Amino acid sequence: MAPRFPPVSAYDASLRTRRTAAADLDGTLLASSSAFPYYFLIALEAGSYIRALALLLVSPLLLVLYVGVSEAAAIALLVFVTFAGLRARDVEAVARGVLPRHYAAGVRADTWEVFRGAGAERRVVVTASPAVMVGEFVREFLGAEVAGTELETFADGKRFTGRIKAVLVGKRKREVVEKLFAGGDMPDVGLGDRESDHDFMAICKEAYMVPTDKRAPRASPGSLLSRAIFHDGRLVRRPDPPQAFFALAYLPFGFVIALLRVFLNLPIPPHLVHHTYALMGIRLAVRGTPPPAPNAFNPY
């Protein structure tokens, strides 16, 4: 019989002192349980338009595998399509400059408050997502260690094969937590949102389930341990499958329109440009004091 854990709303910080905590990421610390948008960002930013399109096309198969076969099988295919052949330095750059902003925007306020308070001395995030993908965000924004899925590499570690050494789900999560806390007490608090988290939650002194709620209140940027000051990415919104489809469908048209807007306006006389701008959907706004005319007297 599957163990039953109380909901995270039952956590009472005043009952006793907790010093260590372990938690899942997607669906637990993050409001959404779907990691697809972050893989899509890796495929697009570190890979190419074609790779991102391929990932989007196999997304229905990923859902079938997740529901009908196993979580591990779905993750293995997701990782292969996303990472196969990518350079490690490109993925690390995206994990540093693109993903943190999207991750930070999805942190749940309730579970972050519990995780931060219960893990005053040590916090560990145990996730099926690749460590290379989530590590930067977990360390800088959550102040935690990360135990994630490890990926195989070739060419002296410079590129990913797309294969997984071991998917961190179910019993493997428990094994990792036991290894990280070997020689000491197990985590005071464990947080998870699905059955595959039960194994590691069962060895924690206290454990709480996080109910699915995509509309759960988000943690304020100031409550996290860092801020996403710089965002080096082409997509502003979190690319869930519908947004990802729209972005990929629009990119070719957007590129052509951008070229037309530039080159069609080059031969147009300056005093007529604002008319052609209006026809092409360009809004020209001039703020501040305009520069003097070329023939104006300037003693300097």
Structure, described:
- The protein is built from twelve helices and six strands.
- By secondary structure, the protein is an alpha/beta fold.
- It folds into two domains: 8-220, 3-Layer(aba) Sandwich (Rossmann fold), CATH 3.40.50; 245-279, no CATH class.
- The chain has a six-stranded mixed sheet with strand order 4-3-2-1-5-6, sandwiched between helices.
- Helix 1 (36-47) runs antiparallel to helix 2.
- The radius of gyration is 24 Å and the shape is elongated.
- It starts with 19 loop residues before the first strand and ends in a 21-residue tail after the last helix.
Quick rundown:
This protein has 300 residues and is an alpha/beta fold.
What are the SSEs and their pairings?
Blueprint (H helix, E strand, L loop, with lengths): L19 E4 L12 H12 L1 H9 L1 H10 L2 H13 L4 H10 L1 H6 L4 H10 L3 E9 H11 L3 E10 L4 E8 L4 H10 L8 E4 L5 H4 L4 E4 L31 H23 L9 H7 L21
Parallel strand pairs: 1-2, 1-5, 2-3, 5-6
Antiparallel strand pairs: 3-4
Global outline? elongated
Q: What is the C-level CATH assignment of the largest domain? A: Alpha Beta
Q: H/E series, N to C?
A: EHHHHHHHEHEEHEHEHH
Largest sheet: 6 strands, mixed
- The CATH level-2 architecture of the largest domain is identified as 3-Layer(aba) Sandwich
Unreliable spans are none
CATH superfamily of the largest domain: HAD superfamily/HAD-like
Spell out the key features of this protein:
300 residues, Rossmann fold, 2 domains, six-stranded mixed sheet, 12 helices, elongated
